[in-house]
Fold Stage II sporulation protein E.
Amino acid sequence: MSSSIIRTLARDHDLDPEEILKQGNALIYEDSHNGMFVTTFFIHYNPAIFTLDYASAGHNDQVLIRKDDSWEIIKGSGPPLGVLPSASYKGGSLTVEPGDMLILYTDGAIEEKNSKDEEFGLERMIREVIARKHLTSQEIVEELFGLVRKFSGTPELFDDFTVMILKFNDNYQFSRIFEAKTSAIPLFREFVYQTIKVRNLEDSQRDDILLACDEAGTNIVMHGYENTDLKNPKFECKIRFTGDWITIVLIDSGKVFHREEVQDPSIEDNLSGKRKGGFGVYLIEKLMDSVDYSSEDGKNFLVLKKNFRNKASNGNNV
């Protein structure tokens, strides 16, 4: 019941973790029986800006391991959910980088004791995680569980063992596949808009990106798949934020695009009807800071980059 309440409240992205726990506590208290309560550590991760917002309701502190192997404790304050009819919670916010790791755990992962009555301990857990950072999150957790069991010297642990490890990387944080139809272009444009709007972009920068993507998507649909026999053609859009840059990659399986065959635009020739097309490519390259075309294994890759800290950014570094 408590998890359902928190999940429902978390759907409202206008609520920060502190408010989610505050409202969740009031609802859980109303339905709690026989003094039942629950501890919670709530985290909201925004991959677009690499931020973690968090708050705690009587839960043990969590750990953020930086890519240089330094680490810090993430803590909040507030009573467990369901103890008091009204309560306030205090959390915080921090920025993560590719290579960082977040350890979420329950006290059973560090309070297990050996035959000498020594606890496994938080620092030991952190050291063991760092020593295995080259492994996947699942592999780290499995090996950590084995270490705790071996440390205890008993077949069954005294308390529950719950550990979750989140690894932050520089992969493309947002991805979606669209049908290569003109009717999909507005959906594609809306996807890009919803993805980049969380960044502090100037209106002109946002408009540049949207217009460039609109042109690129239209070129794929109208020209890339023109006169091809592919059934249900599609194109994929991937978006990544790194530092001050936004990178957008469009991937399709249409005809190979040869940039060198596209002449520079001529207003006179286009207006007179001597030449058609060419403006879309020119426009994309003027709106973005970097444009790159490549093809490999039957797929075409268009990489668009924009530096959103550069207020005068309208270059054409191709």
Summary: The first helix runs from residue 2 to 10.
